[in-house]
Amino acid sequence: MYAPPSGEQPGSLRKSAPWKRRTTSYRAGARHGGGLRGQVRLGRRGLAIGIDIGGTKVAAGVVDAEGRILAEARRSTPGTDPRAVERVIVELVEELGRGHRIRSVGIGAAGWMDLDGGTVLFSPHLAWRNEPLRANLQRLLRRPVLLANDADAAAWAEWRFGAGKGESRLVCITLGTGIGGAMVMDGRVERGRFGVAGEFGHQVIMPGGHRCECGNRGCWEQYASGNALGREARVLARSNSPMAQDLLSAVGGHAETITGAIVTDLALAGDTASRELIEEVGEWLGLGLANLAAALDPGLFVIGGGLCSAGDLLVEPARKAFARNLTGRGFRPAAGIQLAALGPNAGLIGAADLSRVSSRVRS
Ligand SMILES: [Zn+2]
């Protein structure tokens, strides 16, 4: 059981902190292989700080044991220098820690962490390569620190406090510029053998299709993401189709400036072409979810990320395509598909909560 030291004060200068010898992990809470009920062993009901490090901003918040954010602070991401990022984290913790008694700090960032959550193996937006971030930060912050992949942190938050509450096998999909994926299975974040599970966006769904940043062609995120929506809208706008009239006038005739977010706004305002474009993305989404259901058999998919502001315009076509493509349809129970409940703060809330409840590594 993960337990921060009793009586540890924010600023104390203990030479040897006993918790440093403990192994923390964000394979948190439950015993291996068990069911869900009663197995998430919550840590102390103190406060934790969650920090979500994005490509452009660092968001931090004080989170209580019920997942509520009591105070927030933000900074711009200070470039890619690991030391500069550490300094911003320390600043944010000091600022937020002034009015609150903070027991632990959880950091969520895009990238791969090693299995015990101590080292960032790779982060696409930051210059972290085999960076022993947790040790550095525990030294600077004098508190237990936990590192989590941002999609894992968001999935954990949705499972604990949001749309996935009570689900024993949950798959979360985050639709932003690409597709983020994470699983909470039997009360723990499932990260695979090497800690890099959940890269669902790179399942090849169209061999020979659009080139992906990962180097392959036809990856799911090239068809079911905000970037895919923007790309298809730009193609339509350049086609001189009368269908694209509203799209083009929304960007002053500059087709190349159309983004997924613009298309979503227009769709919500009733533009037919934008609605069709989102419907198409929703169908790709449903097809990929059917593939995932064939492999993972979850009880629920929770769909989060910026593209979710399209709501039912996206999710309804996804549900239909899912039902049409599900292996064994008609002869098996089908997973539900729901929108995420916690919005853009899910990563921050999840990182904080994971830092509070995390227990020993099992592997
Ligand atoms: Zn790819």
From TrEMBL:
Pfam families: ROK. It comes from the Bacteria. Keywords: ATP-binding, Kinase, Nucleotide-binding, Transferase. One of its GO terms (molecular function) is glucokinase activity. Its EC number is 2.7.1.2. The keyword ATP-binding applies. The keyword Kinase applies. It is an enzyme of class 2 (transferase). Transmembrane segments: none annotated. One of its GO terms (biological process) is glycolytic process. Residues 1-34 are annotated as: Disordered. One of its GO terms (cellular component) is cytoplasm. Belongs to the ROK (NagC/XylR) family. This is Glucokinase. It comes from Pseudarthrobacter enclensis.
